[in-house]
Amino acid sequence: MASRLLIRTCAAALLPLLAACAGSSTRPGPIVGPTQTEALLSMEQWALELEQAQAAEDQAIASERLIVAAATAADRARACAQVEDCDAKPVLARMAELGTAHAAWMSAHSVSAEWADAESAAVEVEASAGDESMAPVAATLTRFDGRELADVIVLNESVRASLNEWLTWMRPQLLETLDNYQSLRDDMWPAFERAGLPEAILFGILAKESNAKVHATSRVGAAGPLQFMPATGRRFGLGRAADGFDSRFDPAAAADAAVRYLQERFAEYDHDLTFALAAYNGGEGRLIRLHRQFPHASYWDATIQSRLPRETRDYVPMVLAAAWIFLHAEELDVPRPSARTDVTQVTLEAPASLNSLAICLGQDASRNGWFRALRNQNPRWLPHIELPVGTAVRIPSVVAEGYRTRCLAGERAELALGIAAAAKQHLASAAVATAYTVKRGDTLAAIARRHQCDTRQLASANNVKGPRYLIRPGQSLRLTGCRG
Fold this sequence. Notes:
By secondary structure, the protein is mostly helical. It is 54% helix and 4% strand. The protein has a two-stranded antiparallel sheet. The chain has a two-stranded antiparallel ribbon with strand order 3-4. A two-stranded antiparallel ribbon has the order 5-6. The radius of gyration is 25 Å and the shape is globular.
């Protein structure tokens, strides 16, 4: 063990030197740059965890640490495989070697072998640019607080009733969330992965909060894919920036804030997932009082349930049920989308709106088309706004070639522009409203989005001061500059 620690220490010390070498144009062959070095170091961390697991007294904790190390190593290997000048061969060879050892350890200790087929895992990483969008759930974190999440979720009557709803009349929303999550996964999952939180928890919250739509808002002022209220968002670094953009709509920032919020609640509620989720919905004040008043009561006990609002009582089992479905999708015949999730950036070579791009890209490799993916990946742009040449737009990699062949010239491109322009003109001509009376739960930003106007321009026209843009129910606003 001492020798391996020495190797890892030396490798860490060499990282700056290797990074400097990566910039040299005189060295032939594949460059050993930061990406490959990080991948190899993550492999050695995995190897160290394997070595320590051999003597570990608590197998469950050792298994959890191994899974985290393996997932991190796979992520670094995938990053290397996707960089043109990163020599992935030694990384993948080491990954296959460690995966075999990992599977052997799990088999010897009767632990579910989530990395049993290590050689296939290495091949999957090498070919990830052309594989299915969502990695198998077994290759992501599935443990919470040292236990399998599927075992943490108690299938009591409330959760079973929620499963019934998701799998019957709410099945379309469930499938829509799976589709929409595709375009958010690369932005949102890393924050949960770094924190060691199962991906299924993220999916469950998204399914209940917004159907994984970045621009979702509520009547009480919550906004974004994870539906942060303004005050809570500000506590965790979310809010309106100088350019007017509300970072609650930024999927990566929202995911990071949600992780930090949940971690705070886990610390308060002894890592009780149900209490943490209840606080996410109903506010931590009420839940911490109940937890302290009834320290030995389960969240499901009548003493707790009778003191919660109905919305929160419904919320927790719905999130847990969605998470359970995410873990058991194949058993329940819930199809996972097959399109890739990776995102690329294109620079517009012709003026376009997100609407016109969605029309010209069509429906290849997506059962519902690409509009929602374009919206989710470009939260700053309203869909009907024409973006000028040179604008950087994020699009799914799988349709990057389609942009060049369908959206720049030809009959499809002209048709898409014509349809989108007509919709834009319709929006403009329909903007007959000149005033709006503020209702309870309204925010100035939400009103601006609803009526398609600039928040700062609307604030200026109504003498509403930033940066908080406070308005009150009953207040009359002039819809200056609004188009809808």
